[in-house]
Design brief:
The chain is mostly beta strands. The chain contains two helices and eight strands; from the N terminus they run E-E-E-E-E-H-H-E-E-E. Helix content is 6%, strand content 40%. The strands form two sheets. It has a four-stranded antiparallel beta sheet, with no helix packed on it. It is globular and about 45 Å long.
Length: 142
């Protein structure tokens, strides 16, 4: 439940349908996350053979080990849109979580902060990448 009635939210979502099965997912974006703000990333997957996408719950992804160490200071941010102030963030499936094979997914982004703060989180270049474990750019085949 929201901790305040003052916050505002805009929710946009679109289902993505893949031509092939995937069993992992990564989400990346360029972001400005000033002090006391954050971005939470969630994915909803429809397991292969299932049909009710609405009944599925979201899985929260976590920052990868490199992203966990990134910080943006309030002074560096200074409320500007300067491209140099954006850093690359990457979110992955939490360790120990096994995803089903899926063809349909949706990504949800929740930006958090202090309602009294002047600095707000911003993101651009959001990319959700469906992945097949064990396959990389050196793998050949159909």
């Amino acid at each position: 439940a929201p901790a305040s009635e003052k916050g505002k939210c805009k929710y946009l979502a679109r289902r993505t349908v893949l031509p092939n099965l995937a069993d992992d997912i990564h989400v990346e974006f360029d972001g400005q996350l000033p002090q006391n703000t954050d971005a939470k990333i969630y994915v909803k997957l429809l397991a292969d053979g299932e049909t009710d996408f609405r009944a599925k719950g979201y899985i929260e992804l976590e920052k990868d080990s490199d992203t966990k160490t990134l910080t943006t200071t309030a002074g560096e941010y200074a409320g500007t849109e300067a491209t140099s102030n954006y850093k690359r963030y990457r979110y992955v499936v939490p360790s120990g979580t096994t995803l089903p094979k899926y063809r349909v997914f949706s990504t949800k982004v929740l930006l958090t902060g202090n309602e009294n703060a002047q600095n707000v989180p911003r993101i651009k270049n959001l990319s959700s990448q469906a992945v097949v474990k064990g396959v990389d750019e050196n793998t050949t085949g159909g």
